[in-house]
Amino acid sequence: MKTKQMCQGCRNDFYNGHNLLGVKECWSFERADVVEKMRVGTWQNPPYTWAPKTTLTCYSPEGGVMIGRGDSRVVEAAECEKGI
Description:
Number of domains: 1
Structural class: mainly beta
Strand order of the largest sheet: 3-1-4
Number of helices: 1
Helix content: under 10%
């Protein structure tokens, strides 16, 4: 179920009533879907071990990006342990 708590840490959470502008809801929230993605920091190098988080399609963290399981740079934990 989609909630605004899922917006915590997103750079656009400012627009969910956390401002003096009178804006009550982020423009992306209504159309966002709940998905599994993982956060990757801008300082991290691939490959990335799959560690999913339930989040929204529009989630945009400061200093990072959200990537899906299908991204070619993502590996499963078992593959990492084997050194594949």
